[in-house]
Amino acid sequence: MVCELLSRRDIERARDLIRRCALDFEDDFDNLLGIFEDGRLVATGARSGRVLKMLAIDPDRQGGDLLGRLLGELTRLGYEAGRENFFIFTRPASTDSFRCLNFVPLVRHPEAVLLETGGGLARYLLEREALVRPGENGALVVNCNPFTFGHRHLVEQAAARVPHLYLFVVREELSAFPFAARLRLVREGVRDLPNVRVLDSGDYAVSAATFPAYFLKRKSGAARIQMEMDLLLFAEKIAPFFGIGRRFIGTEPYCRTTRDYSRCMRKLLPPRGIEVTRIERLEAEGEPISAYGVRRALAEGDFERLRALVPPTTLAYLLSEEGRAIGRRLLTDPRRH
């Protein structure tokens, strides 16, 4: 039977099996499961949110029903936790094993494939069909943690160059500011721009499913593959649906991961018919405005500095009890900056 691995000894057994299958063990998971035969761990796998990972089968036991049993229990636990769709990153050679178990390839990369079960992408697009507008439109993908004058400048500049601008706000709850607050501040900050459509990115643009390295800040070959797959998914699935022929990016003086992502964007998107336009970041007092600078000023209680960095709608939120509580958390846990 499939059982949850909870003891230190069983987790170490899973770690050993995962490594023997040339995979990386990751400590962040909601469930870690295993199958034992005669006291020996022969299969293991984990779930982290919607992502199923670390799926490892003993080389002597591959080709049977172990993978299907693991995936069945992992998805059952995911459904119980409120998830509706699930993702798997795998090597291209393993794609057919997952297709036989109702996982559908979303994007193929020479070094990896991203698959999904549950019909999430089709559902995501159908729910946003009313937002589709004719013309060669543009797109911005932003985190806005929180929304600043710099973001406002970027949106204004982009919106002036296309008939319609789709402003995708990263949905992941892995930022200092909760998604609901970030989305609201973006909508309030651009509500006077008539050709801007604000929508959430769902699981399909810079998410922990399509591009986990963005949030984990891993500096590895996997990060490059993941950012390339995120962009291929955008080019092949998202852009055609919304009629997007242009993607905008801001200059990035601080975050190496974001700079690498921008370079990948300029390499991968133009050959697929999507022009990439870079916009210079707005400055305040001789320095580029950044959300990091806003979070630092909030943690330090420097509200005069905040007035120079964020629009009135964002400032009002930062001055609220909810905003001040985030500032106190930032002060005690600077890693969240």
What structural category do the secondary elements indicate? Answer: alpha/beta
- Counting DSSP H or I runs of 4 or more residues, the number of helices is 13
Number of strands: 14
Report the oligomer. single chain
Reading off the top of the CATH hierarchy, the class of the largest domain is best stated as Alpha Beta
Terminal residue distance: 44 Å
Show the helix and strand layout.
Layout (H helix, E strand, L loop, with lengths): L1 E3 L3 H13 L10 E7 L2 E9 L2 E7 L8 H15 L5 E5 L4 H5 L4 E6 L2 E6 L2 H8 L9 E6 L6 H11 L5 E5 L9 H12 L5 E5 L12 H4 L4 H22 L1 E7 L5 H13 L6 E5 L3 E2 L2 E2 L2 H9 L3 H7 L2 H8 L1 H12 L5
Parallel strand pairs: 8-9, 8-11, 9-10, 11-12
Antiparallel strand pairs: 1-2, 2-3, 3-4, 5-7, 6-7, 13-14
Helix pairs in contact: 8-9, 10-11, 10-13
Question: What would a concise description of this structure say?
Answer:
With 337 residues, the protein is of the alpha/beta class.
Question: Could you explain how this protein is built, in words?
Answer:
This protein has 13 helices and 14 strands. It has helices at about 10-20, 65-80, 95-100, 120-125, 150-160, 180-190, 215, 220-240, 255-270, 290-300, 305-310, 310-320, 320-330; strands spanning about 1-5, 30-35, 40-50, 50-55, 85-90, 105-110, 110-115, 135-140, 165-170, 195-200, 245-250, 275-280, 285, 285-290. Strand 8 (about 135-140), helix 5 and strand 9 (about 165-170) form a beta-alpha-beta unit. Helix 10 (about 290-300) runs antiparallel to helix 11 and helix 10 (about 290-300) packs across helix 13. The radius of gyration is 22 Å and the shape is globular. The N and C termini lie far apart (about 45 Å).
